[in-house]
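User: I'm writing a tutorial on reading structure tokens. Could you give me a worked example: one chain, its sequence, then its tokens, then a sentence or two explaining what the tokens reveal?
Assistant: Sure. Here is the example chain.
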Amino acid sequence: METIRPLKLGTQSLPDSDSRLLCRNILFDMMGEATICVAGGDLAGLTGLYWRYVSLSLATIYLPKVPLTVQARGATDQSIIVLRPMEGRLEIRRRKRKVSVAQSDVIFTPADDAMDLVLPEGGRLDIAHLPAHSVAARAHILKPLMLKPIKADCLPLQLLTNYAGYMLRQDAQSREDAAMMVQHFHDLLPVLAQHFGDAPRPAARQTRMESIKARIEDNLAKSGYSVSDVADAEGITPRAVQKFFSREGTTFSRYVLERRLAIAKAMMIADGATQPISQVAYGIGFNDLSYFNRTFRSRYGMKPSEWRKLAAGQDGETEFGGLSGQDG
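And here are its predicted structure tokens:
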């Protein structure tokens, strides 16, 4: 039975450069390119947990207990990130807006724009990433939650974080169990939004681009999946599909490659390093292993085998509480 495992970042032996690269790779999957600025400049000994499913990613990262800033350039889609500082307040600086989040409270924010995450005391930061395709149908429902701090004692929020904490703490889950827990997590989002008053009704249908991306996500494992396949399913021309991607500064092929690489990178560490890298590559739609290795290295600055070795760590793994209400 296929299982999903959390990546344990319990690697006290990793130096600053490797800890920084590992952290940036995880943050990249959630909020795009990110730079971490630490008082004293040292991230050595980074610890935490990272868990990924196709429609939800979770992380608990134990950062140094010193002032630090995460400078995120923004994701390439309209995904959502959920943040919770656990050892001090968090300040989000987004364009000209500043929002302060108290310790243990939670905030939802769109991930498609540049922002600075300032942790004056550093320490543990909990993060959840909701991919665009997973929240597209509920975008209007979730709008009241954006950039508004939510108190830790909010009951729907407590239920949400308990589900997230459970998924992070389990050594392994079957794909079926993971799918069920993620579905429960997403089902609680409208309940949380309703807690803030009359949430607007969901849109009658997804936007065209959201629909296109959802179809791609469902068919990434098919190596021959093409722009013509998407166009036929949407009832439009391949040229029209390409125009949608052009407006976002990319192409159909480049977007599909980016998604395959990101999922392959997560799969290589989520399976406990038991699945051969070649099987990961073929399973996510690559039909040429050398091309996979070459594009992976070009995108992430290391070979797939080097990423797996770095992510697995070398010494003493430590478990953490994740997004639950427990302290690490």
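What the tokens reveal: The CA atoms of residues 86 and 318 lie 18 Å apart. The longest strand covers residues 47-53.
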